[in-house]
Amino acid sequence: MQFMLLFSRQGKLRLQKWYVAHPDKLKKKITRELITTILARKPKMCSFLEWKDVKIVYKRYASLYFCCAIEQDANELLTLEIIHRYVELLDKYFGSVCELDIIFNFEKAYFILDELLLGGEIQETSKKNVLKAIAAQDLLQEVSYGDTPIQL
Amino acid sequence: MNSSDHGFNPAFNMAAIKQVFNEAVERVRMPTPMRLRDLIRQIRAARTATEEREVINKECAYIRSTFREEDSAWRCRNVAKLLYIHMLGYPAHFGQLECLKLIASQRFTDKRIGYLGAMLLLDERQDVHLLITNCLKNDLNSSTQFVVGLALCTLGAIASPEMSRDLAAEVERLMKSPNAYIRKKAALCAYRIVLKVPELMEIFLPATRSLLSEKNHGVLITGVTLITEMCEHSPDTLQHFKKIVPNLVRILKNLILAGYSPEHDVSGVSDPFLQVLAVNILGRFLLNNDKNIRYVALNTLLKTVHLDTSAVQRHRTTILECLKDPDVSIRRRALELSFALINSNNVRTMMKELLLFLERSDPEFKAQCSSSIVLAAERYAPNKRWHLDTLLRVLIAAGNYVRDDVVSCTIQLVSDSADQQGYVSAQLWRALEQDTSDRQPLTQVATWCIGEYGDALLYSDVSVGDDPTDIVRVTEDELLDVYQRLLWSPQNTVVTKQYTLLSLTKLSTRFRSNVERIRQMVQQFGSHLHIELQQRGVEFTQLFNSHAHLRPALLERMPPMEVVRRDNGSQQQQVQHSAVNGVLDAADVTTEESAVNSDSNALLVLLGGSDLSSVDAETEQHTAKPPVATPSSTDNQDLLDLLGLDIGGSAPMAMNNINMNNNVHSTNNNNPLLLDPLGSLGSLSSSTQPISGLPSMTPSSDASSLVAYEKNGLRIMFTLERSDMPSTISILMAAYNETSTPMSDFLFQVAVPKTFTLQMMSPSGTIIPPSGSVTQQLRIQNPSKGALRMRMRISYSSGGATIQDQAEMNHFPSEGWQ
């Protein structure tokens, strides 16, 4: 996978994870162009889009679009599965997740993603294991400090 | 669960106690910064973009000041806010160092945010690597699994080559950790390292093997990812891991529930019966309402079409139906599949659909689609008339999106089909009468044809189509009126005007009267603002004045350009093109050639011992039959020196013709005027028209491929194919990018000893995407049947750096020539 983007129906970026090194300017350009292209697509159209030299796999969940860029020879259905797995994880973690959860707790959304994927490849197929690891780390944040826990 | 479970108990750590103490002091001294959620609320409350920018600028200024004051207590909150601001598209690079400070902190919250920030703000191009490498090394040795996990995750995300080298040993150690949570992350980290620095693969090999005897799914899946990557990199490793394939199959059997299958590794077990069954099911999927299923079905059919065409053919109508789908992704797949399905039996019906598609398609499809149609038409055309009609329809339907290769292809075909020339000219005249400003390629082909074969239109009745009463007859004045419009319309490109001007000049010898009007039209260009048009204006005017007696001979009809000439080599055939085009067409065709050939000449010098005069001698031989009957040319070399031109293999061609003019005239009127403007023909590069559309190679069965070059993640493979011409071999060069960054401006050049002749087709592209490839066809003629030596020059840019390299290739199999 080359990158993953989460953005709203209004075209606002909610999360971005890059697994390839690009200059900031290029990242912004890609993000902008991709958001416009995907938002212009009708709901009945398929989830795949050949765009420049990558394949885009995207899916809309409520007001949020989840969008991954994968190599031409990568499996698009598998990517769709990864997206869905991620959404399920967010849903479990936040308890019926909504866009606002991801906006106000974007760092948690990143943490969960980093337990699911590493370097753009899937690292854990068990939802239970991911959530267990996240919960343990959240706890570590609370108690590892002698003083009152720091609120972000 | 409490913290001591993870061995992370900073209460006993002196440094941590110090940190707690200092921060307690700071917290008293410094005001508490705004909370992250409050900042997000404020930003969301902003009603305009300006308001939002104000909030953010204010907060950024504050964050900067806290960074300056080394406020470590609230650092993680401030960095978190900065990360949110960064996502909104504002600059946040000043937080990079703060992230590193957070990582070095003892507190887990700090580390978590610090590593998150490092992953978001740093990538392999940043120069703080040494610092982060040290932090990572520390944390990879931590006793807390989650700290190690964070470090591995960050290493996997950034993984610059230097970092990979420095930390590979640590990662290898962690791959053997008793903790599955760490093992799976280490395996993926190793995958990223191998991806970036393939040489490091060796050290991971032993640890990788044991990953597959795992029970844990996470470790298994990451292990398979790592092995797949290793196998793709090195054939040796592939051999090594082939032994474990049965193992994998057994694992798969046991774990059918696992959402991933390492199919790449399993050598394909293909049951033809099953395949046909599958294709039929896929065909049914094409009718499915779910677009995702349709897309995947098309994609899979495209993969199977080469294995079993007839099974896929059965779904042709459904596939053609998909061309009309509103979804662009499905149309693109269907289009590709349609082209794969064309054969000589269905070419007429398929082409009808594809041309309809071309007419209605979005601009992004037109270029690719028209070139593919041209290729398919060339391969499967039932007859010439149909072929020509198809090309004309492409030119009309795709307008300005037509690529140059279609123009040259069409011209070549017209020139080669003597009995259709009148018909084609009439059709093109019909098209030209309308406004063609959005169809420049069509205009170019039309003017070329009318220039060559216009007399057929003027003085005989040409029937268009099947109806014999539908007759085109043009008067000279009508023709000139249209030309006047074409020449001065601001919508027409310079290239089109060049075609038109040349065509007009040619018409002066086809016309029975009106030559004076043509002369005036040409003369107007003598003061044209555009330098090339002006030059042509001046040159052609000379053909009406002092050199008028030369005009009929110079402007004679071009002999047919045959696509394949079996008695000559293809090199000669291509050279002949420019020879017959002569001076007047020089700017259209010859300069392209000279550009190509001068490159290879420069390379010839590299080989040493080859002198340019031999090239000249060779080309001189080809031009022995110029279209104009003239006294034989004097030494080209002298003239070339005289003109001080950059010598290109075909520059002599142009020169040869100048030479003729020169021979005839310099003796009696010593007129440098003709010579001068023509002398700079070599520099007319903007008007080059690539001549392509040469015959597609028929691959013979005994093709063999070898690696010609492999360095820095670029692999060049040669596939040798014996061609059907004697002592000629064609090589399909394929360059693969095995890095994860695209390679742009890819240029592949080749030089061979002078006993060989080399012809290079244009490459399929100049950009190689990561794990993508570019191909280029080479043809080498070896009349002396000597051993082939080859020198290659390769240049490309990757990640902002330009890479140039040279290599020699001397191990060609000798039996390829017989």
TrEMBL record, chain A:
<keyword id="KW-0813">Transport</keyword>
<dbReference type="InterPro" id="IPR044733">
    <property type="entry name" value="AP1_sigma"/>
</dbReference>
<feature type="domain" description="AP complex mu/sigma subunit">
    <location>
        <begin position="1"/>
        <end position="139"/>
    </location>
</feature>
<keyword id="KW-0653">Protein transport</keyword>
<keyword id="KW-0968">Cytoplasmic vesicle</keyword>
<dbReference type="InterPro" id="IPR016635">
    <property type="entry name" value="AP_complex_ssu"/>
</dbReference>
<protein>
    <recommendedName>
        <fullName>AP complex subunit sigma</fullName>
    </recommendedName>
</protein>
<dbReference type="GO" id="GO:0035615">
    <property type="term" value="F:clathrin adaptor activity"/>
</dbReference>
<dbReference type="InterPro" id="IPR000804">
    <property type="entry name" value="Clathrin_sm-chain_CS"/>
</dbReference>
<keyword id="KW-0472">Membrane</keyword>
<dbReference type="Pfam" id="PF01217">
    <property type="entry name" value="Clat_adaptor_s"/>
</dbReference>
<keyword id="KW-0333">Golgi apparatus</keyword>
<comment type="similarity">
    <text>Belongs to the adaptor complexes small subunit family.</text>
</comment>
<dbReference type="GO" id="GO:0005905">
    <property type="term" value="C:clathrin-coated pit"/>
</dbReference>
<keyword id="KW-0168">Coated pit</keyword>
<dbReference type="InterPro" id="IPR011012">
    <property type="entry name" value="Longin-like_dom_sf"/>
</dbReference>
<comment type="subunit">
    <text>Adaptor protein complex 1 (AP-1) is a heterotetramer composed of two large adaptins (gamma-type subunit AP1G1 and beta-type subunit AP1B1), a medium adaptin (mu-type subunit AP1M1 or AP1M2) and a small adaptin (sigma-type subunit AP1S1 or AP1S2 or AP1S3).</text>
</comment>
<dbReference type="InterPro" id="IPR022775">
    <property type="entry name" value="AP_mu_sigma_su"/>
</dbReference>
<dbReference type="GO" id="GO:0030121">
    <property type="term" value="C:AP-1 adaptor complex"/>
</dbReference>
<dbReference type="GO" id="GO:0006886">
    <property type="term" value="P:intracellular protein transport"/>
</dbReference>
UniProtKB/TrEMBL annotation, chain B:
<feature type="domain" description="GAE">
    <location>
        <begin position="701"/>
        <end position="813"/>
    </location>
</feature>
<dbReference type="GO" id="GO:0016192">
    <property type="term" value="P:vesicle-mediated transport"/>
</dbReference>
<dbReference type="InterPro" id="IPR002553">
    <property type="entry name" value="Clathrin/coatomer_adapt-like_N"/>
</dbReference>
<dbReference type="InterPro" id="IPR050840">
    <property type="entry name" value="Adaptor_Complx_Large_Subunit"/>
</dbReference>
<keyword id="KW-0472">Membrane</keyword>
<dbReference type="InterPro" id="IPR008152">
    <property type="entry name" value="Clathrin_a/b/g-adaptin_app_Ig"/>
</dbReference>
<dbReference type="GO" id="GO:0006886">
    <property type="term" value="P:intracellular protein transport"/>
</dbReference>
<dbReference type="InterPro" id="IPR017107">
    <property type="entry name" value="AP1_complex_gsu"/>
</dbReference>
<dbReference type="Pfam" id="PF01602">
    <property type="entry name" value="Adaptin_N"/>
</dbReference>
<keyword id="KW-0333">Golgi apparatus</keyword>
<keyword id="KW-0813">Transport</keyword>
<protein>
    <recommendedName>
        <fullName>AP-1 complex subunit gamma</fullName>
    </recommendedName>
</protein>
<feature type="region of interest" description="Disordered">
    <location>
        <begin position="616"/>
        <end position="636"/>
    </location>
</feature>
<dbReference type="InterPro" id="IPR008153">
    <property type="entry name" value="GAE_dom"/>
</dbReference>
<keyword id="KW-0968">Cytoplasmic vesicle</keyword>
<dbReference type="GO" id="GO:0030121">
    <property type="term" value="C:AP-1 adaptor complex"/>
</dbReference>
<keyword id="KW-0653">Protein transport</keyword>
<dbReference type="Pfam" id="PF02883">
    <property type="entry name" value="Alpha_adaptinC2"/>
</dbReference>
<dbReference type="InterPro" id="IPR016024">
    <property type="entry name" value="ARM-type_fold"/>
</dbReference>
<dbReference type="InterPro" id="IPR013041">
    <property type="entry name" value="Clathrin_app_Ig-like_sf"/>
</dbReference>
<dbReference type="InterPro" id="IPR011989">
    <property type="entry name" value="ARM-like"/>
</dbReference>
<comment type="similarity">
    <text>Belongs to the adaptor complexes large subunit family.</text>
</comment>
